[in-house]
Design brief:
It is built from nine helices and seven strands, in the order H-H-H-E-H-E-H-E-E-H-E-H-H-H-E-E. The protein is α/β, with parallel strands linked by helices and about 230 residues long. Strands 3-2-1-4-5-7-6 form a seven-stranded mixed beta sheet, sandwiched between helices.
Length: about 230
């Protein structure tokens, strides 16, 4: 992997692209990213569970946290490495329930068993030590607490569709993203972070190994964008 997946690099990169982050997310996903978030929250509502305390981990600019408002939480803690992203997050969520905090997923500054729900939207592939992060997420969730992940995973199979998407994702998307964000590398990293990540099946196995059971796994797009719902056992 050309770019190192460490906390300093990730935090600095997201600080750099924060002004254009939302606009490019919507554009480069064909305006589907919001639909994936809305669908995830609808399923959480379907489960008919209460979520008074929510952790929006790797919260970025707060789009997933804003969707979580539909769950009527008492508090949402938005945790991210990028202070610039957290500044945008502050503008999207009500001040009286939103608690932005700069934090590492491997060392969360929260009590054991505090949260009813943890959500990560397009963040787990950036974690330096995924095993340690999953263990820490499990720690801060209550027994029976839910964990939802929306992420771009490495496709399990190669095929014409995935090869075509790879061409777009490796060659075209970085040029558009880097130009519009005025970054020299951020959207090259985006491709590399997916290409070097694990499959959704491997991710589910990792969750099950570290204290979760899988409730549902939904393929949103070509086996690449998936939403995984889990519950702490």
């Amino acid at each position: 992997m050309k770019y190192e997946k460490n906390k300093q690099f990730i935090g600095k990169m997201f600080d750099e692209i924060s002004p254009t982050y939302d606009k490019l997310n919507h554009l480069l996903s064909g305006y589907q990213d919001n639909r994936w978030r809305k669908s995830a929250v609808k399923y959480l509502q379907f489960l008919q569970h209460e979520y008074p305390f929510i952790l929006d981990l790797a919260s970025g600019s707060g789009d997933l946290g804003a969707e979580f408002l539909k769950l009527k939480p008492q508090k949402i803690f938005s945790a991210d490495l990028s202070l610039e992203m957290l500044k945008i997050d502050r503008q999207k969520l009500p001040e009286d329930i939103n608690y932005p905090v700069k934090a590492e997923a491997e060392h969360l500054p929260f009590k054991t068993g505090y949260f009813d729900l943890c959500g990560i939207g397009f963040g787990v592939r950036n974690f330096e030590n995924l095993d340690s992060c999953i263990i820490e997420i499990c720690r801060v969730l209550k027994p029976g607490g839910r964990f939802v992940t929306i992420e771009m995973f490495k496709p399990a199979k190669s095929g014409l569709t995935n090869r075509s998407f790879r061409l777009y994702f490796e060659k075209i998307l970085p040029k558009i993203g880097n130009t519009l964000s005025s970054s020299n590398f951020a959207y090259d990293y985006l491709f590399e972070s997916v290409d070097n990540f694990i499959t959704v099946q491997s991710y589910e196995n990792l969750l099950q190994k570290n204290g979760f059971k899988i409730l549902r796994s939904k393929n949103n797009f070509l086996g690449i964008v998936n939403t995984v719902f889990a519950e702490k056992m």
